[in-house]
Amino acid sequence: MKIASIMNLSIAMQALRVNKMRSILTMLGIVIGVAAVIAMIAIGGGAQQRLQEQIASLGSNLLIVVPGSIIQSGARLGAGNAQTLTEQDARAITSEISDVAFAAPLTRSNAQVVFGNTNWATNINGVYNDYFDVREWNLAEGRFFDQGEITRFGKVAILGKTVSSQLFGEDNPVGQVVRIRGIPFEIIGLMESKGQSSQGQDQDDVIFVPLTTGRNRLFGEPRGRIARVGTIMIKAQEGSDTQEVEARITELLRQRHRIQPGMENDFQVRNLTEILKTQEAASKVMSMLLAAVASVSLLVGGIGIMNIMLVSVTERTREIGLRLAVGARGRDIMMQFLVEAMTLATLGGAIGVILGILISWLVAYIADWGISLNMFSIIFAVGFSAAIGIFFGYYPAKKAAQMQPIVALRYE
User: Fold this and answer.
1) Residue 193 per-residue DSSP state
2) Distance CA 206, CA 196 (A)
3) How far is CA 194 from CA 129, 204, 210, in A?
């Protein structure tokens, strides 16, 4: 059996070498199909990987409460104008909803930051330390705020990586003093890099100050709005249903803000985890769709193999008759042509894998796009191309095996 298989493979390779150009053109459909499948899977996998990194950079089980819209002089203003969220809302969310681990109030503004002769425009975020727990964001250098700095409106700041690079280059900024809106702030910490958000924003382009300091020294909040905050960032407990937590937060805030039934909320709750999971699911569907479309060219390549094998059977009719006449069985003839078809498809698949990997790397290099190659997709593509060869080579092989020796020998 092993000797027969080796002989069939040897005959197949010899037949392919006799018609090199035809063999190459026949394999072309398989090459293009496999290359397209490999490239689409790699690029789609890279997109999913990037989304997962963005989900991880935001923090797990994350919800955000932002102010809603208001109506002023008959005009409906956009979201964020209501300004009804307070620190007390954040404390109530933490204490009254058991599935909430942290609820971190946040207020923000933009400002020019100056160090020596260097300056940089960036985001200034007023936060408490629980904000970093919500975001799962660690320090690279230094420390977080202490209670005294929070209580006494301490002029201390923690830098993001981008701000540090712009003002200090590669030097450690901890212990240095910068000026924010003319006020000196001592740098006590440097955050680890978070990278870009799902909207493409640089999350490291930020300076953190105590919320009390930002509100009373930097942002110029009126006394009547001393407890107002711009955002409340919430981290749900591990294993909790974030959609249920979202519903309970909405109910609690409606009660606290005395919103009557039927009235519109003066806030919005955004479930970022669910939004990004939906994006990830959509990315997976798109990757599968692209791979399915690319697979169509494999079928076209398979039809090309069948056509060429039918031509080959016709051209070699006398050879088939001669082999049958000297004792070859129908299954031997059938196996010979199946091996030829499978060889064409497998060689095309192997070349397609190499081409697909090269295309993926080229896309990654030119577009600065991550790719994800895995051995399963490569093995699947080659195996599928071999199966295409067997499937589409079966009919020509069966036709050759069913020939009558005397008829075949008389073929002109």
Assistant:
1) P
2) 12
3) 17, 6, 20
Q: What average pLDDT does this structure show over 128-156? A: 92
Q: How confident is the model at residue 106 (pLDDT cuts 50, 70, 90)?
A: very high
State the burial class of residue 1 (Cβ atoms within 10 Å of its Cβ: 0-12, 13-18, 19+): exposed
**Are the C-beta atoms of residues 60 and 245 closer than 8 Å to each other?**
no
Residue 281 pLDDT greater than 80, yes or no: no
pTM for this entry: 0.61
Q: Which residues of 309-339 are buried (b: 16+ CB within 10 A; e: fewer)?
A: bbebbeebbebbbebbeeeeeeeebbbbbbb
Q: How far is CA 381 from the centre of its chain?
A: 22
- Cα separation of 197 and 175, whole Å? 29
Cα(76)–Cα(70) distance, integer angstroms: 6
pLDDT in tens, 169-203: 999 999 999 999 999 999 999 999 988 776 667 88
What tokens does 177 get?
Answer: 């003093």
The candidate with the shortest Cα–Cα distance to 45, out of 357, 314, 305, 409, is 357
Distance CA 269, CA 181 (A): 32
C-alpha–C-alpha distance, residues 69 and 81, integer Å:
5
pLDDT tens digits, residue range 225-263? 557 888 999 988 887 888 888 899 999 999 998 888 888
